[in-house]
Amino acid sequence: MKAAVLREVGKPLQIEDVQISKPGPREVLIRTAAAGVCHSDLHYIEGSYPVALPTVLGHESAGVVEAVGSDVRTVKPGDHVITCLSAYCGHCEYCLTGRLSLCVSPEMQRGEEDEPRLTQGATAMPQYLNLSSFAEQMLIHEHACVSIRKDMPLDRAALIGCAVTTGVGAVIHTAGVRPGETVAVIGCGGIGLSAINGAAIAGAGRIIAIDRVRGKENFARAFGATDFVCAEDGDFGRTVLEMTKGGVHHAFEAIGLTATVEQAFRILRRGGTATILGMIPVGQKISLSGAAFLGEKKLQGSLMGSNRFPVDMPRLVDFYMAGKLKLDDMISNRIRLDQVNEAFDEMKRGELARSVIVFDS
Predict the structure, then answer these.
(1) Which listed residue, 46, 149, 194, 203, has the most CB atoms within 10 A of its CB?
(2) Which among 39, 59, 80, 141 is annotated as catalytic?
């Protein structure tokens, strides 16, 4: 099969032939229909996070089940599925207490003594984030995907595999935004727009979108923002504090920069919560005023929107089909696999929401 391979940090992906194994007892072979190009993949390309090389990138995807292992019970051949990088074992402390996204059990991967899922010739290739979806096929554990209704377009379903689950989930699960509360979202990429959409679904009274690209305003308002602040105009923190007469109930940072994380905390009102969605590069630290915590302000992280994806993703599909989830406008470009490097270049310029690789059926 054809796949986009990262061989060296800082270098473009290469389209190469990669061999894929047959499903083991708990595994599912999926024909990839679509894969979103996510900023998280760029972090690994640029070396902000470590990754074993060479590897096939991609983790936001949807497709059709081609074959299943002997013990698979959750999906069957012909099912349309969304994948999720937060594969879960189902029996550890995190899983048993409903925090599936925090599961770190190694049993969803093959053991060192087993045949690898991906190879090139005689060389094993490590699987990226349990998925490696920049490829024509995926071989994954059954607890890394969920079946969805077949009338859902798969290019839009792919977005639910990461950006939407992360953004909407952070609003609803991690932060617990309540009707009437004020929300600020810093960064209007795929995850930020999803957080805006999630805040609108949750009934937030005022949703302030913040981005350095002025052209993102129309995007943000289409997804539910009531206000837009261009960060290029000056101190956006001061602007938000003045607009809200003291700060917001919830701030969501969807970029992954220490400066914007610190600003997210700064723009909170007393008792407010800042939730960090962006991936801050390894080794970077955050500096906050200790006295601010006396106002019961909180800073918290969110991993993949604190999801329970086997339940959440089919519900998000229903939201889209009911017109509540704005996925059509999130796809800026539909591209071929061999255009993936161009998509990352466009991402760096910050001018689009999401490029989606669409594979031939």
Answers:
(1) 194
(2) 59
